[in-house]
Structures
1.
Amino acid sequence: MYPEELVRPMRAQLTGNGFTELKSVEEVDQAMNDKEGTQLVVVNSVCGCAAGSARPGVVHSLTGDKKPSKLYTVFAGQDRDATNKAREYMMPYPPSSPSIALFKDGELVHMIERHHIEGRSAEMISANLQTAYNEHC
């Protein structure tokens, strides 16, 4: 596990922009069992593509008129049990860090896996998400 001092600013990049951090299995289940509306769940990570593309892209995606009603994040490599539980809701997609999942009324409707993030700009991630918001939110 990474030291908390190292990941604190990475957590804050999302929590400072309206995301609720889920740190336990119980918190994940409680959040995911509230199936009304739309939920964006970001599996955060310390990797370069999380820092350069995923987090900035996710934050920028929320500047449009349509956006998810609930924003959640778990941190891979830090809050393992919560992350593993969140990934169960993202099945059949394999575990991926970072990754971004959009749920509507409890159903997974859009997924961005690590291989969709690597090599893409924050603007591309944002545009991808805004397209999904326009369809589902």
Note: The radius of gyration is 13 Å.
2.
Amino acid sequence: MTVNKTETKAVGRRGFLKSASALAGGAAAATYAKSTLAASGDPAITELKDWNQYLGYGVDAQGYGVPSSFEEGTIRRWVPWLTASAESSVNFSPLYDLTGFVTPNGLHFERHHGGIAEINPAEHRLMLHGMVDKELVFTMDDIRRMPSESHFYFTECAANSGMEWRGAQLNSCQFTYGMVSTAQWTGVPLKWLLDYVGAKDGAKWILAEGADASGMTRTIPIEKARDDVLIAFAQNGEAIRPEQGYPLRLVVPGFEGNMSIKWLRRLELGDAPWMTREETSKYTDLLEDGRSRMFTWVQEAKSVITNPCPERPVDGKGQYKIEGLAWSGHGKIQRVDVSTDGGRNWQSARLHEPVLPKCMTRFEIPWDYQGGDALLVSRAMDETGYVQPSMTELQAVRGVNSIYHNNAMQTWLVNPSGEVENVRLG
């Protein structure tokens, strides 16, 4: 994704703007454009190129499509020193290089606790047991034969932006915010399976277990399970990738990503939470007074400006497009405000349709950059009325000991040189 700031001569400007405004959205396009394209003297348009004159490659009958070689820099990246090993680590999605709100499967962030499990789907099983009328084991064929649904949902690691609690750390949009992605997930609603096996009246919780080497387990309240949880087998129109839980995973919309157990093998119903490692010593929020918040599942309203950002500097004065992403585990994004002066003044951004619940929403706003310093901030509000807090507001409630659930507003400093830095206000 690049900023629309093409240099050109003034020749033909009035004619271009007149014709553009006659088109749907033409006026808006003129507002964002730094200048219009003029063919005169530009060899990129006046001279024939090799691709105009020679046949290209034919179809690859056996291959799996890959991006253009000119997009080879759009990749997931990781920080080697972040964890002890790659088998229990994370890589980050390049948010600044994405368009729309859907993350391609090959760019969806990864988080593993015991490495990627390589599972033969013919040998994979899902067991439902515990407080049910009939304990059953399902094959993958059983699951695929059931009625299914498809929904767009974001998945965010609870530790996304976690290194920023005490101050600005990583000068990067990708490494600061890249543990979030959105996909269209296809699978069987968990509530249908619960009805099929007959959840007993006293069953209030579900233990979900993965088949990876870490034996990842999390406890889910049955109310959530009966709401919108999916037993998913497909992602963006194809089988889930191995790193995302092939052949079967949970998708728990709006809850921290660790709840969406990958390589799902077992669901046990009970009358109390299991208090597993991942909801006692981990994925809890240590407060100033020494107590910890537990079962803080919902990823609250959050946003980030993806352009400009440290990976996408500006190139001199002129018209730019500030754009970014917003999401909320409580439902739809209702509004995103953008400030270029550190939060003293705000403008409401345009939200790209469709705006869906528990799904990333793209926003944008035109910006006439006059040079000098600028402080870019975004602030999201969801349909419940919840407003994304500043870090000062968040720390007043949570202190500075947390790792998880940092949804504070992010500030980018645009320097006179055009470089963009991660900074902390207040």
Note: The first helix runs from residue 13 to 21.
3.
Amino acid sequence: MEHTNDSYVSVIVPTLNEEHFISDLFKSLKRQTYKSFEVIIVDGGSDDRTVKIAEEFGFKTMVRHKMPEYESRNLGARAASGQILLFTSADIVFPKDILAYIVELFAHDSTLSAVCGSGKMYSAPLWARIEYDAYYALLHFWARMTEDVHGSTNFMAVRKKDFSETKGFEKRFDSDGNFLNKLGKKRKVRLVSTEVLVSGRRAARMGFLEFNNHFLHLIDIFLPFMRETRLMNTLKSAAKAKRLEALG
């Protein structure tokens, strides 16, 4: 396939003290069968080797001290050269053909605006892996039955022009799912079964009760009438604090 700017992929990764995980992500990107891509790291001011590792791999790095996650993703999108934006996280490991798969999906459907895939936990307790698998199965079933789409920036690819037109991610804890849901009401969005590996570090660190309390806010996906209520906003604020605490 001849690579053009229309098929060029920009992989956008926000980071903060990710030296223990980021190399695995970078190695999985280096193994990709599709080679026409760039990687943009937006670092929030790491005091470990995260930025040094990114530079050793030859990836573009911007440091913005204390910049929140979704503002970092928006910044990376503005700096991107590609017309396909692949949003991901520092503790993800991709299968070697993921970029080729994404490019083919967009190339064969000019109306497709975004693609979002599933995650599969690694280095996690058995209960967490079972819950994660069940969550994604339910998420895909819900989308098929209702056309009410949600997803995660662990693996979310979006046409840059559509991302720009919708003004990107909002300043909110659940901005990734909220963005995909709003986009899906206006443009074509696909949930695909292709999986990426996701670190189970939060589940391992929090334990069963705290981890599930952290994810209570996800019930608003399947109970739309609960969205934007005071209770859900309180749960989301608490989940954000727990997430930051779990990541250390």
Note: Residues 126-146 form the longest helix (21 residues).
4.
Amino acid sequence: MSLLRAKHTVPKPTNSEVSILRILWRDGPSTVRHIREALEAERKSTVGHTTALKLVQIMCDKGLLDRDDTSRPQVFRPRIAEQETQRQIVSDVLDRVFGGSTKKLVLQLLGIKRASHAEIREVEELLDRIEKERH
């Protein structure tokens, strides 16, 4: 199994859903009001309450969020951990766009954005750990 493959299949979130997930991963369990306000701050534009509520309801139906119905207002939390969701999305991109080639993906990533020395060291350490595990 590829290192980028998640153990469980995560429902594929849309861009708007990823924005909401990032807010919840950053801020923790939140109300629709908090999510809407955070989206507005991020987008620098108005987001309607019913729009935010509908997105959150869809995400609950897809299995991306859990809803706590015991409190008012309701509180929402991600069902899937940030790292697992990231792995699933990257795995999908790896397969669809790069034909499964990790090398092509990594070369594109490093070519798009200049990595800091600390990031390069972390990548080198990861590669060393992977190499050790193979032997």
Note: The first helix runs from residue 15 to 27.
